[in-house]
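=== RUN LOG ===
request id: a7f3
mode: sequence -> structure
chains: 1
length: 385
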Amino acid sequence: MTAFAWSTVVAVSHKLMSNSSSMFLKNIAVNMCIPTQIHSFLMSSLGLLLVFRTNSAYQRFVEGRKIWEEILSISRNLSRMLSLYEGDVGDERISRIKKTLAAFPYLLRHHVRAHCLDCNDDVPMKHRYEFPQPVETGFEAEEIHAGASYDQDTIDGPGPMESHYCVVDRRALPWSLLSNRALEKCARAVNRPLWSCDRMASEIVSVPYSDTFTSRERLSMLGQIEKLSNAIGQCERIHQTAVPRNYARHALRSLSIWLLTLPFALVKDCGLLAGPVVGITAWLMFGIYQIGHSIEDPFQKTLRLSMLCNAIRRDVLGDTVYRASAFSLDDCTSSNVTVSTTEESDKSLSSPSFKTPTAEELVRNILPEVSIDQTIIPKQRVACI
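=== RESULT ===
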């Protein structure tokens, strides 16, 4: 709207001064028009700035989506392994691990989204729990150069959190998936998704060895949890590493100057239509810039993390009864048929009526048209057969 209003004022002023009887105003109307070649030349450089910014932001968006897709696959694989070794791991331990695994994506979403916890003061007292509000863990070097003073504990530590508390409902996700003692320990952790990975790893390490559950199975499960821990670092890298401010500011300033001077290049040829033309151009150009700004941090309401979290919880906990049917092999009858066929063949070979063929009979079966005599097949060769 600002570009449209500004270009309309320029077009109307040019029209009034051109129709004026004063030579001074007519000279101003003539001199306020600039050649269009200047904006055509600058358009290529401005387009490169916008394209580079949009492409870099889209790459971050795609990378964030791939990270959460990997988290979904890892959660399914780990849940499958737990179900396969249910007898060795134990039902209670599997239940605790799966609930912690289902809570992991929700905790990670809260970790990469600032001020993501739902603060609600209307929760009943028996269901209330105070959580420290997530705090950004990054440390900006430019604040040091600006003259801010920090002590060593503040720089190395996660930062003060005592004044950032909110109330959550224990009945809501993911808090309802954790027991009371686990919820208290998780609340005191700064990195809650990392705490959930450590908790699952501790549960798996506590599983005793057996004939079917050895160090190979244990290391395989720990490897899946290690991938979840790596996903936390990948999400933190995207969330805490923003596009350089100087690059974003330079692109915005260049676009503003280009649109500010565009009416002076179009008013001579377009007249009063310069206002709508510049307004539409500004809408398109600023729209491209806004797209890059919106998707450069994919975890801030660009990716639908709620749907991904619910999908992980549903695959890990939701269809337990139906997934358990896949691990039961009672409906398999092909093995019985194979065993019976093998037994029948063994019986036929061991029966008295079975006669071992001689060498000459074997040769006749292989070469039926060749006569068996001493000139064609020597005795040594027949003996070898």
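=== NOTES ===
Confidence is low (pLDDT under 50) at residues 135-163, 337-341, 369-385.
Residues 340 and 346 are 10 Å apart (CA to CA).
=== END ===
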